[in-house]
Write a structure and sequence with these properties.
It contains 10 helices and 2 strands. It is an all-alpha fold and about 170 residues long. It is globular. The protein has a two-stranded antiparallel ribbon. It has one domain.
Length: about 170
């Protein structure tokens, strides 16, 4: 069983961004594309180190908290507020798989920490470049971004996002 892209957007991404005081079609489309592209990469790879719909590694999760969120208590509190009250303290990485709102917030933090400059929401190639530059592990990039950009664009289009304005 899978979650449709429209359900992921409407019930998870939009809801999470709204809870964080954010209203941005570009961020919605970037996060939808991220989920689709990460799933595609995980299917292509024999070993997956990422967790959840966004394929975030434990190392990335820890670095976000230790090197970014810990330096901004208000933002950390906002993100922590999306996590489960008790489970987060016992098994924080499991939240990436079991709590879609929390995983979405963490995925956005990956981009925000990197100082992402968002393209127009309809610029799928621009969104793909953001993903390749900020979300993909440097060791996976191998100095060649075009195959990654193609992965994002193809994944995005396969989920029925040929018209990015459909992210409503």
């Amino acid at each position: 069983m899978s979650l449709s892209s429209s359900s992921l957007n409407q019930f998870v991404i939009q809801h999470t961004l709204k809870a964080m005081g954010i209203c941005s079609k570009a961020i919605e489309n970037l996060l939808l594309g991220t989920a689709a592209a990460q799933e595609n990469l995980m299917l292509q790879s024999e070993i997956s180190t990422g967790i959840g719909v966004y394929g975030i590694s434990k190392e990335t999760h820890c670095r976000l908290w230790d090197d970014y969120l810990a330096l901004d208590p208000d933002l950390a509190s906002e993100v922590r507020g999306l996590a489960s009250q008790h489970e987060f303290l016992k098994h924080p990485h499991i939240e990436l798989a079991t709590n879609l709102a929390y995983a979405t917030a963490i995925a956005w933090m990956v981009y925000k920490r990197g100082g992402v400059i968002l393209p127009h929401p309809d610029d799928v190639e621009g969104l793909a470049l953001c993903w390749a530059e900020h979300f993909v592990k440097k060791s996976d990039a191998n100095d060649e971004k075009q195959p990654l950009i193609d992965t994002f664009v193809n994944s995005y289009r396969k989920m029925g996002r040929n018209d990015p304005s459909l992210a409503a």
